[in-house]
Amino acid sequence: MMNKIIFLIQSKDQKGLLSAISSHFSERGFNILRCQQHSDLLANRYYMRLELDLKDLKGTRQKLQEEFAQFSAPLELEWQCYFSDYRSRVAILVSKTSHCLYDLLTRHHEGDLVCDIPLIISNHPTLEPIANQFKIPYYHLPIVDGDKESQEVQIEELLERHHIDLVVLARYMQILSPPFTKRWCGQIINIHHAFLPAFQGANPYLQAYERGVKMIGATSHYVTDELDQGPIIEQDVVRINHELTPKGLRNVGKDVERVVLSRGVRAHLEHRIILWGNRTVVFNP
Hints:
The chain is an alpha/beta fold. The protein folds into 2 domains: 80 residues, 2-Layer Sandwich (Alpha-Beta Plaits); 194 residues, Rossmann fold (3-Layer(aba) Sandwich). Helix content is 32%, strand content 29%. It has 8 helices and 13 strands. Strand 8, helix 6 and strand 9 form a beta-alpha-beta unit.
């Protein structure tokens, strides 16, 4: 597989950005493998995802970024740089529900999610056999006497010890504290079992049943300190009818949840997401 340098760039929209950025890299001998861009005319914002051939890098990675920082300053570009030969380290948080965890681990095992998963964390011991099946360490961190703060301290210690880049909440049924979500801003992805912004909070399938909806869905989004309000990454829906009970809706919804979560995680791992405010620009694979 060809190794790449990936730049995610955004700024106020202005003339000549594509030419200037392309020239900066071509003058340094880089082959531009792919360039994706989007102009949001309403917000007057410009977004770009650029792939360069890593083998064209003549100096150090630090020098590459220092030179681009100097170039980007007058244009007021916001940017991130990633290297595809680095595998992101992912922690999965779960409670008792297994379908999203199984799906992520299977996709990882088959090479569809390119990352390392050094640990799984849960507030229940229920899913440890699944972790054992995939030979991934499982940490049971219960919430004792309602002391969520102490449990979160233990979680953060594990995340730091394992040098985690991304936290995935695969039906982790606890609300993370605002200080926790702020420290991990843009690095926590949750799956919500509804088509946000509809049916936020607990038991959305019951809410959907009571409302008599004709479609149910799922949403993967970044976690913020506002419950189910974070930037949306991926969504999908499936048609249903009046015959389904809340339990039936839940069973149908499992497949949508699996797909939507894995798509969101994959987009993050492949550095295809640009965040701006409470919105995302997600480039195609």
